[in-house]
Specification:
Helix content is 31%, strand content 16%. By secondary structure, it is α/β, with parallel strands linked by helices. β4 (65-66) and β5 (69-70) form a beta hairpin. The termini are far apart.
Length: 361
């Protein structure tokens, strides 16, 4: 008997964090239905190749969404399939305002186009239909990178703790710690863990602005990395190698960036420097630790940001919670200690997060 087929339609913003959402949803349905053949439809602007590294996903289908609609030629490879089940994001049911017009039109088109043979619905949304497909929310899973894809060789750490560090995300707004703050953080970790290695990774272009040439940006980042004992420059090493160094690290240290959401999915706990508009979703049942800001407006999405922080962004200063991170060093070091303990579980992490959220508000 042929396997039943599930299509997960996750054509949304191309940020990596939203791709990770799709992978988590696929893992949830696979956990409850291990004989399913799972296909995932995503925005072609996201690094969709990562989905191919998930053994529970049969195929990832990228589609191009343009202002006037679809590029239909990018849609051909999926037309050969008939799907028993079709799943859309629950935000498409409850919060259309989250979708820019082209993406909203695309999802309406896809919902009309893909007619499931058995049932169609939304993830994490109860249904009274007896034919509805079941899922196991927050199921564990792991992205497995083929060995031949990794060409970047790390130095022998000889048992020293390894930190993969992402200084910032792609946004040009000043929502990230400054390099001065980062230096304070990393030097405090180095003081407590003298053998620590810091694999500082990212894409140089993310640091760009109208005031700096590429050579100036390169010099700025290289000068910073050279000022940190035990730091290694892992910038612009390619997607697979970047995934590889995160996978091989003991801890991923980063503020809220879409790419950082991949850490737990690679088996590496995320020590998140929380703050700004969005809270973190911790995927794949991996331990985590959040250094939470002491701010009653966090997370300050949907126009809820402090006037002070709006002004700081306007004049190119880090938002308040990122500029005050040096006061959170003791909490950060607690997080490091916990995450280096292999017995620190996802449940432990959740309990600590809950307690920290209460104490910081």
């Amino acid at each position: 008997m042929a396997s039943q087929k599930l299509l997960i339609v996750w054509v949304y913003h191309p940020a990596v964090g939203h791709l990770v959402e799709a992978l988590q949803v696929a893992a949830n349905y696979y956990s409850a239905n291990p004989k399913l053949e799972i296909h995932v439809l995503v925005n072609s602007k996201t690094p969709f190749v990562i989905g191919n590294y998930c053994e529970f996903i049969s195929k990832v289908h990228p589609v191009q969404v343009q202002l006037e609609g679809f590029n239909l030629t990018s849609f051909k490879d999926i037309e050969q399939y008939e799907f028993d089940y079709v799943i859309f994001p629950k935000r498409f049911k409850y919060s259309h305002q989250d979708f820019p017009e082209p993406l909203l039109k695309a999802n309406h088109f896809l919902q009309d186009y893909f007619k499931p043979k058995i049932w169609g619905g939304y993830n994490d949304t109860p249904s009274l239909d007896e034919t509805a497909l079941q899922e196991n929310p927050y199921s564990g899973f792991k992205i497995k990178i083929p060995k031949d894809k990794i060409t970047y060789n790390l130095p022998d750490a000889s048992g020293a703790p390894i930190f993969s560090v992402m200084l910032k995300g792609a946004s040009k707004q000043t929502k990230w710690p400054s390099l001065k703050t980062w230096k304070i953080i990393l030097l405090h970790i180095k003081k407590k863990y003298p053998e620590a290695l810091f694999l500082i990774t990212g894409v140089l272009e993310a640091h760009g602005d109208i005031h700096n040439s590429n050579s100036q940006l390169k010099n700025k980042v290289e000068t910073f990395i050279a000022s940190i004992p035990g730091a290694i420059n892992c910038y612009d090493i390619g997607l697979d190698n970047q995934l590889g160094i995160i996978k091989d690290a003991d801890i991923l240290l980063s503020p809220h960036t879409g790419f950082a959401f991949l850490g737990p999915c690679l088996g590496t706990p995320w020590l998140a420097l929380s703050g700004g508009e969005w809270g973190e979703q911790m995927h794949a049942q991996k331990s985590f630790y959040n250094v939470l800001p002491s701010c009653k407006k966090y997370p300050c999405n949907r126009g809820n940001r402090k006037l002070e922080c709006n002004l700081r962004i306007k004049y190119n200063f880090p938002i308040k919670c990122m500029s005050k991170l040096s006061s959170k060093i003791p909490d950060l070091l607690i997080g490091v200690e916990k995450l280096l303990n292999e017995n620190y579980s996802f449940s432990d992490a959740f309990n600590d997060y809950q307690n920290s959220a209460i104490s910081n508000n």
